[in-house]
Every structure is written in structure tokens, then in C-alpha cells.
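Morning F.,

Quick status update on the modeling queue. The single chain you submitted on Monday has been processed. Sequence for confirmation:
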Amino acid sequence: MNVVLPAIDLIALDLDGTLLDLDDGISPANRQAIRAALEAGVRVVLVTGRGTDATARIVRELHLSLPAICAHGALTKDFIAGRTLGHIPVPLAHAVPMIEYAQHHRLNVAVYAQEIFYRLAGSHLYMEDMRGPHWREVHSLVDVLHEAPTFLRFLGRESVEAMRAAFSGVPLHFKYEVWGDFEECAVTSPEATKKNALERLCRDLEIPANAVLAIGDSRNDVPMLQWAGTGIAMANALPEVRQAVGRVTARFDEDGVAQAIERYVLGRSEPREKSA
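C-alpha cells below.
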């Protein structure tokens, strides 16, 4: 029996664990599928927990025209026009005590403000990316809080557990993630989520949820994937993520994005989708 697929007008793509490989590259199959979708008139938007540096590069590499949603939904930016369309920072009333606590207890924390990551001098480097030009070492994180930061990152299990014990009751959004042996928690305003930012963008574009295909792998992707008419989790996602979403495509290193686009956008007849 032929299955009638919903008409997709927009594809929302997470980056890490979804579109990108371990070297921050995009596989030829994923590139080709995105190119085919764009040529078919389908719009593509990046929705990521990352800041603006890598996101801007990928927007230009893929020749995307839509704004990108960065920083877990706290920042929406049109890189082509060079304009910030939406910014929902962490209120200073909450950010300052958290940073003061982290500095006093020597927790590994990063502050994302003015589109730069700041970390304390001498802190542990969990990722090679932390040596990049968009990271700055400072002697006091409080001193860089001239305005409300976009989000905070507590890095490593010790820092995450200490922050959770001290601040779990604060009215903010805590996004816990595990990457192998590495744990982190991103802290944003309660309103700053991928789902909320994507919903706002689609409302501006007059695209209904049932015309959206969203693909992701993390806990913070789940509300977005459940909101989209066609939400798909990666096979490398945690079991709880796959279970919450239902539809599952192949792993990030098996061209899962390309397979989902082929199945749900390009209408290829042989789905390679996996069960949850």
C-alpha cells in the first residue's frame, strides 16, 4: 500500500550528533540530500546548541538562506544580513550568583556573551574546540558580565553535580547532556528552547508545524521533534530520546540525515528508517 507523505516545507536540523561528523564536517550524502531538498523548494534551518561561529560557517557552506537558531534557542541570527533577530539571555539576577558560586568553588564553567565563550584561565580544556578563536580566557567571569549572558555551560560531572545541588530550584532552563564520558549542563532562560525558537520562526514564515521535518539526537531536541509534524531521532540518540520521538533514522555517521530527507522530503520509495 502506498503511504501518502506530508508535504514538507521546512527541514530543521540539529548539528552535533545529527548533521555533523566527529570532525565537524558534513558527509557527501548529507550535502547532496540537503542540496536536493533546496532545489525542490524546501527551506532548511539549522537549530543548534552551539554559538554562532561554526553555525555561520555551515550556513554559508550549505548556501542556506534562512536565519539559524543557535545557543539552544536563545539566539536567532540572520548570518546573510548580519542581523540578530532574537535574543533571550539569562537574567543577570540569576547569572551573577551562579558564576560567583562557580568561581569560588573552582567549577569548570563557561559564559557565552557577545557571541564569545569565556572561561577561567587555567581551567580544564574538555574539547580541542576550546582553543579556538571564539574562546577567551579571563581571570574573572563576573567582570565580563556587562550585560545578561546568552547562556552558561557547566562542564564535567563535578561541575554539573555541584551546580545541580546549589541551583536546581532557580527558575531557569537546565539542559543536561552526556557525550560518552563527558557531561555538561547548559543553562538558559526558561523561554529559550529550540522548540520555542523554531515555532516562532515558522510562525513568521507562515509554515505550520505539520509541514516541518525536524531531526535531532539530544534531550533538548525532544520538544522540537515532538512539535514538528515529522520529528525524527537519530539512532545514536539516547534510548529515552528515541522512545519519546518514535521515528528513528540511521546514526550520524551513517548518513541518517540524508536517509530521513530521502524518505520524507524526496519521496524515495525504500525507507532506511529504523524502529525506535
